[in-house]
Amino acid sequence: MRIIHFLLIFLPLAILAEILHWPPLVIFAASALAVIPLAGLLGEATEVLAEKVGPRLGGLLNATFGNAAELIITIIAIRAGNLDLVKASLIGSVIGNILLVLGASILLGGLRHGVQKFDRANAGIDATMLILAVIAISVPSIFNAAIEPDTLRVEELSLTTAAVMLVIYALAIVYQMRLKTTNNGIGVQPTHTGPHWKPSVALAVLGASVVGIAIMSEFLVGSIEPVTEALGMSEFFVGIIVIPLIGNVAEHLVAVQVAMKNHMELSLSIANGSSLQIALFVAPVLVFLSLLLGNPLTLEFNNFELIALVAASVIAAFISVDGRSNWLEGAMLLAVYLILALAFFFLPGVL
Questions:
Q1: 257 Cβ neighbours under 8 A, 6+ residues apart
Q2: Within 13 A of 158's CA, how many CA atoms are on the CB side?
Q3: Helix 199-231 vs helix 68-79: crossing angle, to nearest 10
Q4: Residue 325: in which H helix or E strand, if any?
Q5: Bridging pattern class, strands 324-325 and 116-117
Q6: Phi and psi for 117 in degrees, rounded to 5?
Q7: What is the pLDDT of residues 285-316, one digit of tens each?
Q8: Degrees, nearest 5: CA angle 325-330-331
């Protein structure tokens, strides 16, 4: 984790590039690289504060800030009116966690330790929650086709569905807290392994990281259109592949590192937990926040996004159902992610 802190050098570089109106590609690259260490610092500060306030409030704190970088980037995009980019990044975050992150973790952990074991009960709960999240996201998209001319009813369906998603997410956190589990991945983090800062320092780092991510996100979103035109990529590919990687690199590295230390259950919890936070917390929160920002976001995704989401959740559930993993299963997850990424790359004009 420490090595990504060196990327903070891109923070002043991105600001300088924006002020001096350097080429959009430079602004995009510098701001994207700056978000990575800022997200890492945000996660470390949250972990420190979560340890100080105890397991119950700590779990809530982690649930709130677990995907703060992703939330900030999407809020900036909503304010800019780029709703399709937001939807693509939400789906991209979910499939990235359960295919790319989990796949890399299982592959590298399996190559080092052979067959790795984890708690089937916890994995089963996460898998069930993931399928529920897929259903919650898919239903409005499917039913909106029948009620599409009535914009008001489309928005009402998204709002009510988002409310149900937030309720079940809250219930999942309560369920874990009552069982006193801290390693099954829905909003509760494992034992503290980060820096030992004072609470005042952690709060300062948290605030500074949030401000920094917000500024970098502004630069990032503002440069997406000219960058995609210059590189010949679609905004859909940037939204579903590139942006989720930028906002979650720090957390991805942690999941892979713990898997290589033979803590597969913890790695599984991080990957699945982040996916669940995005699907059941970040997505519905954005639906409500979008109303305040004047650009209503509906839970209406295109067929390509839904196909990718269903495929990712099904294969991840099959792999976690037996409580054992090996490097070949990790390779399978990575293969699915690579195939989807290639398909999205060759799919122009979706947005």
A1: 1
A2: 26
A3: 50
A4: strand 324-325
A5: antiparallel
A6: -115, 155
A7: 999 999 999 899 998 898 899 999 998 988 88
A8: 140
